[in-house]
User: Fold RNI-like protein from Rhizophagus irregularis.
Amino acid sequence: MSTQSLEKALPTECIHEIISHLVHDSKALNNCIRTNRLFARLSATLLYKNPWKYFLIEEEESELVKREINPKGALLIRTYLSCLENDFSLEFPSLGENFILIQSRASLDYISFTRHISVPTMYRFLEAMITSTSTNADKPRIIQEAFLALSKAFNDRCISIDSLETCLQTTSDIFSPIIQKFPNIAHLDLLQYENTDDDLRFITKNCKRLRVFKFSVRNCNPALLSNLVETQKDYLDELCIRITASPKQLLAGLSPSVISKITDLRINGLHIDHALDGLIFKRLKSLDLSDCYSVEDKTFNLVEFGNMLTEINLSETKVSEEAIISLATHCKQNLKKLIMLPCGAADSVEQGIKALATHCPNIIEFRLDVIRVEIKAIMDLIKSCKGMQVLVLGGVDINNEDFLLDELMGNIRSNIGHSITMLDLREWGVSEQAVIELVRDCRKLSKLFLRYCRNVNDNCIKSICKYLAGNLKHLDVANCPLVTPDIIAIAETELVDCRIIHASRLYCIEHI
Assistant:
C-alpha cells in the first residue's frame, strides 16, 4: 500500500501509533521523515525527542574513543544549526563567517521537538564536525560560539525539557535559564559541573519534581544539599552524589533521611578517613571509591549498605584482603559488578576472591589488575558465577606458570562460555591452542583484548575470524609479536564493524 493510500485508509492518530513503534530504530524514523510531510511531522517528534540515545559513545580504558563509531553525530549538529536560520551572525560573528557549511534551512524546527539535552554529547559532536570541516585557525572560538548558539536555541525554542546533562564546558548562564524555564524537569545531571551553594539554592527554588538528580559536591553546605533533596519529597527515584573534597564532613552533615535516599555514591581521589562509619544506606546501588588512598580493613564493617548494593568500583585504590572478605559477606548475592583495576594492593587477595566465590554467585562483571597467586581462587569464582559477562584479568604475574593460564582458559570456556561478552587477557602467556578453543566456545564475545600475549599468532586470528565474525566489535592484539600485518588485512575484511588494534606502535586499523 502506498503512503497516500495509507493516509486515506487510516486516521492520522493510527498512523502516529504505527510510527511510534519505531522509536528505537533511528534509521526507520529517518526514512519516514523523508516520505512526505505528514510522515515527517509525525516522525520528527519521535526522532528528535532524545536523538542522543541513538549514538554509541564508547569508553576504552577509562578514556572516550576519539573516533565516533557512528559518524552521523556531526549530521545531527548540522541539522540543529540549520534551524537557526543564520540569525546568529551578529551575536556570534565567527558563525556568520564560517557557517557556509550549513547548506540550507531546515524545513522543520527540530530544536523545538527536543525534550532531552545531553550537553557532553552535543559538545563532542560539535568538536568533531568543526574540526573536520573548518580550516580556520580560530576553531576553539567557532566551537564555543556554536555551542552557545545551540544552548540558547534550546532554551528559547524547546516546549518542554525532561532531562538535562551538563559537561565541563557548561556554565550557570547556560543551564540556569533552562532550569528556570522548565521547573518540571525530571532528570538533572550536574556531575561534570563544579557546583556551588548558590547553585543548590537555585535548584531548590526552581526544581520541585526531580526524579533523577546527579550532583558533584565540593565544599558545599550539607544543610543546603539536604534541603534540596527533601524538597523533592517522594518524587526522587535516583540520587547520585560525587564528593570531591572532605567526604567525612559532608556525609556527617547530611540528614539520615538524605543518606537513606542516596542510590549512587562516588568518593574519588580522597582519603576515606572513616567517612562511611555509622552511615545507614537503604537504597544504595552503586559505590565508587576509585583512586582513593586506601580502604581500611574495617571500612565495610562499620556501615550499613542495605539490600540493594550491586556495583562497587575500587579502581586504583589500595584494598586489603580483609576489606574484600568483609565486602563479600555484606553484599552476598546482591553484588553484580566489582572493579579492582588496578587495585594497588601490595599482597595477594586470594582469600578475598574465595570469599567472593562463596558469597557472591551473581557477579556478572569482575575486573582485577595483577594476578599473583590468586589463579585458583579466580577459577573458583568463575565456577560460582555462571552468568559472568565481563572478565578483566590483565597483568599476569605467576612465575611463568603458563599451564595454569591454559587451565583457567578451559575454566572460562566450560563455565561462562555461554555468557561472556568481554574478555581482557592482556600480558597472558596462554598457548595458541587455548586461544583457538576459547573463541570456538565463547561465541558471544564482542570485545577481546589479547595485548602483549606472546603466543597469539596468525592461526589465533584466523579462528577469531571464523568463530566471532558478525559479533566481535573490538579486537586488541597490539604488541603480539607473532601476529602479522597480512593476517590483520584479512581480519579487516572478515570482521565487519570491528575495531582492530595491532602492531607495536599501536597502529589502529578500523573497518567500519
